[in-house]
Amino acid sequence: MWFDLGLTALAAAESTASTASFVGKQGFGLPVEVVLALFGTLAGSTLLVRRRWPLVPVAAALLTIPFQAGYLLLMVGLYTLGAYRPEGPARRFAERRAMSLLCVWAIVETTVVSALTITTQQADALRNGVPEYALLLLSVLVAVGITVAPTMLGLYIGARRRLWETLSDRAEGLETELALLAEQAAERARRARMEERTRIAREMHDVVAHRVSLMVVHAGALERVVHKDAERAAESAKLMGDIGRQALDELRQILGVLRTVETDAVSGEAAAAVLAVPSGDGPGLADVPRLVDESRAAGLRVRLTVGGARRALSAETERTAYRVVQEALTNVLKHAAGAEAEVVVAYVPGGVALAVANTCPEAAGPDAAAGAARRLPSGGNGLVGMRERVTALGGTFVAAATEAGGFRVEARMTAAPGTR
């Protein structure tokens, strides 16, 4: 601000003094001298607005040059017009072509004014034998110096400033983009961890709920017959041992990947990969008959029907179908003791359809009361887990009570054929 005020004061003083001197030499009289001096002062004062309207000082300088004044104003105005890009209609005058035209205009105007006043202002030089063309050439060189030099300097400073602004904007944009990418990576890692935790929870729920349910059922049977039928008690105890060993084997497969790791030293994707449940071979539709036999051994009256041409499905589809049947039978054992159940596996074009239904336990006979006394607790996550598994493969899942008081679970999955 102080720099601009100083330039304005110098330009105003130079313009005022030069115009007053010019008028005094021409002999126009005091009133004209005063008016033109005020005009020179006003023209020099236009430097106050040079940063906002850089074309104004240039125009004022071009108006004062005929009075052999405003040269400092012209130099500062041309520099400012090149260094600062104006807005609005004056913007086109800041282009290089327009700047060149302004320089040519100023050179011609300055040269013409010098040529017209050579005989009056350079009389001493002419008397000393200096030719007029030398004075004219000197005027041209001075005009070029006071116009071209500040214009080129202004254009250079303006280009450098705009380049710096562009680089700064680009750096800020890159920083913003990197921050956004980091946030997206953190969000993907968080979602991956949540998905893996949910997947592990589903696997552990399916294994523990089914096997422990069978063990509790056999334990109840063992309690009732241990004093009456030693052979049947021994058979129930053997079944409990087998089921317990199967549960331990499946739990080891899941818990084996939950070893202690330095998760802070790896990325979110790497941590999710470490925590991932192995997605290799596992139980599939071929194991459903064994699953039904286990439920029968636990006292559940269940029928299995398999329809359609057996075809190879993807390992994930096979495992999901098995888990749906397993969880549905577990729910029957938990909540409908004494009821009859039916499992239907139908191979359809491009996939498989499943249905597990049970009758109303109150209408299933005298075993219903005994079953209600040993009903197992439930966390309410079984149906949610089945639905998540099926929908994750693009299938459909329906679970609802039947009109007869029973319950029915249906699932349909389509998946690309694969080898297990």
TrEMBL record:
Gene3D superfamilies: 1.20.5.1930, Histidine kinase-like ATPase, C-terminal domain
Boundaries of every Signal transduction histidine kinase subgroup 3 dimerisation and phosphoacceptor domain copy: 196-261
Enzyme Commission no: 2.7.13.3
Name of the top EC class for this enzyme: transferase
Catalytic reaction annotation: ATP + protein L-histidine = ADP + protein N-phospho-L-histidine
Pfam families found in the cross-reference section: HATPase_c, HisKA_3
Domain of life: Bacteria
Domain Histidine kinase/HSP90-like ATPase: 318-413
InterPro entries: HATPase_C_sf, HATPase_dom, Sensor_HK_TwoCompSys, Sig_transdc_His_kin_sub3_dim/P
Keywords: ATP-binding, Kinase, Membrane, Nucleotide-binding, Phosphoprotein, Transferase, Transmembrane, Transmembrane helix, Two-component regulatory system
GO MF: kinase activity
Transmembrane segments: 30-49, 56-79, 99-121, 133-157
Keyword set includes Chaperone: no
Protein name in the entry: histidine kinase
